[in-house]
Amino acid sequence: MLADVVGDYRDSLVKLCYNPKFDQEMLKNWVAGTGDFEGSPLKSRLENLQRFLVSGIGSWCAGENLTFVDFLVWELLDHHRLLVPGCLDGFDALKQFLVKFEALENIGKYLADPRYKQFPIWSCRAKYGYFPL
Predict the structure, then answer these.
(1) Other CB atoms closer than 10 Å to residue 83's CB: what's the count?
(2) Do the Cβ atoms of 24 and 31 come closer than 8 Å?
């Protein structure tokens, strides 16, 4: 179920970044949940994720074992922190999740490898997220 929620949140971000009319005002509306993005502000989505992580009975999304959902959550949070700097401020459990995930041996090696690049996140057709901020 969490995989589907993460997919919905990711789809919202993809639609924003690939919108041919993207501009900083559109980003502000997306974060605030206003204008064309009325209904679900980013803060509410992050609160939902944090509430889920805190309420769990284990170290990871599905308990004590790492699953594919943890990879999806990490990727979503990573994209958000890169594209909306400061959006995780006040969400300590989400930040802790990122730190814990990135401390996994093979993940840490991957992220420390000089071949690893944070950008591009999306393809060159994206209006936002192809080039670093």
Answers:
(1) 20
(2) no
